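Exercise 3.2. Students should predict the tertiary structure of the chain below and write it as structure tokens, then compare their answer with the key that follows.

Predict this chain's 3D structure.
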Amino acid sequence: MDIFVSWLLLTIAWFKPTLPRKKKEIKSWVSSQVISLIIGALISMFLLYFIMPPTMWFVIVPVFFCFLMLNNGVRGLLGSDYSGVLAVLSALAVVIALLAFTFAGVWNAEDLHRIPEVTEAPAGSIPDMISTEHIRTVPKETAEWKADKKVGEYGYKFEIQEAHIQFRDGDLKWLVPFEYGGDYKAWKYGDEGTNGYVKVSAEKPNAEAERVSGFSMKYIPSAVFGYDLQRHVYFSYPAFYQKESVFQLDDKGKPIYVTMLTRPTIAYTGEVPAGIVITDTQTGDMNYYDMNGIPAYIMRAMDESLTENYLSWWGAYVHGFWNAQFSQKDVKKPTGSLSISTKEGAEEKIVDEGSEPDVYLIYGNNGKLYWFTSITTSGKDMSMVGYTLTDVFTGQTVFYKTEGYFNDIGAAKNVQQHAEVSKVMGFRVSQPIMYIIEGNETWIIPVLASTNEVRAFGVVHGKTGTTFVKEKLEDAIAEYKTWLTGSALSPQEVSKLAGDIIATIIIQRGQEKQEIPVYRNTTIVIRS
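Answer key:
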């Protein structure tokens, strides 16, 4: 259903349902119809232009009945014949539609579980595609902090909002586009566009950020009216769900936005990718590509939130909706986002897990990006049952089992509680990222100052939680490798010693709580 047909249908909902009974009433009836249809046309136009609902029948038809209910409800209050009856019938239709769509996910939960293409890797296998040649040492917040300092003389017009990771010129880089600093500035400077973007190395914490100018970027997320990127894409592709628009560069270095479009398969949910739209930020030219025809220069297509939904469906609905709510047999979930708070009355930083699932991008040896997340059970602990890697083009996911390993939140807690971090005011951990070092799953965690500047690095052994913190990453990795291969423990001995986590000791000192995992075949000595 295109926009014009949707607008026409929604406008008709405002038609007066009764005919004139006498000839002398025809003129007033026609006048009232014209007024009603003009009002309906304007309301429908407002809805489609500003709200931008997908023009799918199960979206537009319920809206039609809502308009019909509103139209006839008002007429019924004014004493119009049959209008009250039509209002009640319309309300009933809306309620039935809402109930049907609301419970579609409940009735079809196992179908949601099957939508993601997830395969389980052989027991004990370790992914060989995670690259340690390109370790991300500059977290997103640091990139945005560096980019913000490069706004310079454009600060009265533009601001920095969100950084996007991309592999360019031989290493990982953060691309941070300029955005308008509010709707008024977007309206005032819309015809000029923003002046470019900032490029920040994601591998070199001490490297200077580079401002790239000379681009009149008009079609961007913070623009308004016709330049609003979401609206611009919507008016050409209205019959899709529109996902996040990601800033990238094309094969000629021109700034573009890549927007994934999806279609639902189970009522309004169960989305599957349909394709992507590439928008030239300067001209607004758009090109649509099916998922199997994406240009080679595109670094990422699969949407972040859709990937998180897929992994949530796969983990939660293995035995249906009700099992996920109550007994939770075999239920798994993606680990929540990293949450940092400050302890009340102190400067101590508290690491916790956010309520929403989180995936992040890692770079592969094959030159591709993958969505990564650790997988935990329904309980809220710091261990994981495995982790997943999702192809950013196909959405295909591989699950690697690692029972009892530290997840990213547990690893972040270890680094935050390390003396090199906890005793320095303002120091806090940032996003942990997993790498494979000497055949071991290993978390690398930048430590930030209050300014978002990188000040140290934590390296955490995934299986045992053994933690090393140094000012330089290479020093932390060197000490970690010495621990792995030296007289302390070899990787094989680590595996033999650790086994699975069989319990957790919780030590409470006032408001301070420390969780210590207990491994199979270990001896515990407690001295007071």
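Discussion points: The chain has three domains: 3-107, 140-301, 305-519. The longest helix spans residues 26-51.
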